[in-house]
Amino acid sequence: MHQTFTKALGCCIILVLCTCSGTRPSNLGVHDGKLAPCPESPNCVSTFATDKTHAAKPLSYTGTMDQAKQKLITVINSLPRTRIISDKGDYLDVEFTSQLWRFVDDVEFAFDDSAKTIQFRSASRLGKGDMGVNRKRMETVRERFDSAL
Fold first, then answer.
1. CA-CA distances (angstroms) from residue 55 to 28, 38, 42, 62?
2. Which of 17, 44, 92, 122 has the fewest Cβ atoms within 10 Å of its own Cβ atom?
3. What's the pTM value of the predicted model, to 2 decimals?
4. Which of 58, 71, 66, 68 shows the shortest CA–CA distance to 138?
5. Backbone phi, then psi, for 59, in 5-degree steps?
């Protein structure tokens, strides 16, 4: 009986942890020159947002886009539990996974070489609140990116 209960509990825990990753959004990417807007929930920050809850400033760089992208990839790889999903020239799609519950956040970077800026959007797949995790992550990315210049 105890062994059956332990197995059932283990299966439930695995199921809960697997479902925390959520479904990959279908609206990722650059559309009409912009990343997708943030939802109304506060678990997203974007350089295209204009409201206080979601707005963030883009990253700035000097030099070539390739140099800036390489620096950004180095910063991304220096952070724990990251995975670059796609690298399409002037666009990066990255997943960040939380340590405890394995929640996945989708982070996108779009390079605008004419303005020497990197636009971004960082959003949680699940839930409403994120205790400021997306904003803190992007501030860390900014600090590390700027210090690498």
1. 18, 9, 11, 23
2. 17
3. 0.83
4. 58
5. -75, 145
State pLDDT tens for residues 71-123.
999 999 999 999 999 999 999 999 999 877 778 999 999 999 999 999 999 99
Q: CA 91 → CA 16, 98, 120, distances in Å?
A: 32, 23, 10
Strand partners, 82: 96
Q: Structural domains in the chain?
A: 36-147 (3.30.310.80)
Task: Measure the CA–CA gap between 107 and 138, rounded to whole angstroms.
Answer: 9
Best CA proximity match to 94, nearest among 80, 109, 110, 79: 109
- Tell me: pLDDT of 3 over 80: no
What are the angstrom distances between the C-alpha of 126 and each of 22, 66, 87, 146? 6, 33, 24, 30
Sign, CA dihedral 54-126-92-139, equals: positive
* Pairing relationship of beta strands 91-97 and 104-112 according to DSSP bridges: antiparallel
Task: State the Cα–Cα distance between residues 61 and 73, nearest whole angstrom.
Answer: 14
Report the distance separating Cα 65 and Cα 1, nearest Å. 62
Sign of the dihedral defined by the CA atoms of residues 131, 24, 34, 83, in that order: positive
